[in-house]
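re: ur question from yesterday

yeah so i grabbed the chain u mentioned. its 195 aa long if i counted rite. heres the sequnce exactly as i have it in my notes:
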Amino acid sequence: MVGQFSLYRDKYVLEIGRVTMEKVIKSKSFLSLFLSILLIICLSIIPYKKALTFQLENTGEVLVYIPLGDHPEFKIKYTHSIHLSDVIESYQINNNGEIKQFELEFSDFSIGMPENASKGEVFEQENGKYYIKNMNRVFPYFDLRTGKVRANHTVIYGNREYPLNEYIQPGTWVRIKVTKMNLYQQWKGVNLIDG
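ran it thru and got these structure tokens back, copy pasting raw so excuse formatting
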């Protein structure tokens, strides 16, 4: 009888131990699942990827973006509305995430184009084009209204051209700004590089 009680007690302890282990395993599974979901949520809302963004007006809504890797320079090319030739503005991103215009290239002197360089800048003429170099115009952002008729605003990044009218409705006011983006913003916006 004592042996039977001992066997019953050991079996009961074993079953209680099994139930407790199952609870522990279930709670660890739940904890792992909870932590995984929390990690996914955090990664989707915490900005981490530096990008050149084209935002709708001043709303912060990202329409298109360019992930900024090792190439912190870009250009904007457009057709001037009066003399109908290309103008290319060259920019680079500084360490503070600001946009610095460092060069302007154009073909014609006429209304809306500079006639000379400002203090500290260099004016050059090469192969029928005019350049203002050594510019140091720094902006936290700048606004642009995409052309409706003939401006054909195009972003040049990494020697490739991306016509903005293929991604943004002509006539739209966009704010060009360097920001860190989260996964949700990347999913919502259009990556110009990956199309």
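noticed a couple things. The CA atoms of residues 79 and 150 lie 7 Å apart. also The chain has two domains: 1-45, 49-191.
anyway ttyl
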